[in-house]
């Protein structure tokens, strides 16, 4: 009898040890899984920010195929396609995201952004209209302004630009967009004001400087604005002014500005040289 009791104890002890071993292994597996998720999240962040866009697309496409129910990976693929300047493919992937369980209004904004980049303005308008008006973000209203601009609905565009400005601490980009919108409408003074504000907020963006010079040149002001610029930027802006002057019939002024641009550029300024030769050939 005592023999069977000992055997029972041994078997019971073995089972207990096995159970402890299984529990310990499960705990280890869970911890490893948590570490893997953290590592993967960090890698995804890298892929979405500093990694080569093409590599990011490949990473998220591969990871998404392995985990088709992971909406974060599908989002990563869609966003990476935008970064890779492949907007038509991005639209397809953002549509998939928007249809997945767990999709948000921000995903619809991402879809609208891709649609605008793909020149699908009507589709972008429909997507934005499907978002509740209570969802108010800077990106949403910036896109609303761009869509209104495309439709030449200036009143709505101005209202959306103004709303977007109130929702960001970095307004330079939207000020530049709004200024360019005014420029295309022929409101050159309004464009000059907004573009000057944009450069005041961020003087590193050459596009805003070029747009400002266009707005001033359209008003017959062929002097460079007092803004920060390096020598190469100065030469390019002089070239823009020259072409603006020529387009408006001020050929002599344009010719002088082309020569100044060529002299100012620290290297050979092929584009301005070609413009000057063409102008002299026409006049000669």
Automatic annotation (TrEMBL):
Q: Which UniProt keywords apply?
A: Signal
Q: Does the keyword Calcium apply?
A: no
Keyword Signal in the entry? The reply is: yes
Coiled coil regions, renumbered to chain: none
Question: What InterPro entries does this protein's entry cite?
Answer: TPR-like_helical_dom_sf
Signal peptide annotation = 1-21
Protein's name in the database: Putative pilus assembly protein, ATPase CpaF
Residues crossing the lipid bilayer are none
Per the UniProt record, the source organism is Donghicola eburneus
